[in-house]
Amino acid sequence: MRLTTHVGTIKKRAAFVRITKQGIRSRTSNIIILCLHDSSASGVEVGYTASKMIGNAVIRNLAKRRMRNIAFHLRDMFRNSYKYVIIARQSTPTCNFSRLTDDVKWCINNIHNNYQKISSSKFS
User: Fold this and answer.
1) CATH level 2 (architecture), domain 7-114
2) Were 32 and a residue from 27, 37, 63, 78 both cysteine, which residue would form a disulfide, CB within 3.0 to 4.6 Å?
3) What pLDDT is recorded for position 114?
4) Domain extents for the chain?
5) Distance (Å, rounded) from C-alpha 38 to C-alpha 80?
6) pTM, to two decimals
7) pLDDT (0 to 100) of residue 123
8) Residues 44-64, mean pLDDT to the nearest whole number
């Protein structure tokens, strides 16, 4: 596992849809993270989603800013050749920042552990 320092951004809707349909999901009360291994990708890409259900444009932008900030600080946890989508929930804009960071860490660790179980069971 090689650590990365650069995190790219997913911008195309088709990539979001593909990760939503084929990826592994982990959630807490404050955030949802989807992840998909993409062997053709050389780096890490992260997409951010905040729907109208969580609030107006100001609130959605705040949630996305917080998610981008957390992704930047936790960039060493992301694995190369993986694509992640971080989805805001209703509590994301108002949640304590350290709690939100802990939730993201938990989700990422949970996803990576599940990927190891899935890949090891496929080749057993």
Assistant:
1) 2-Layer Sandwich (3.30)
2) 27
3) 84
4) 7-114
5) 9
6) 0.87
7) 44
8) 96
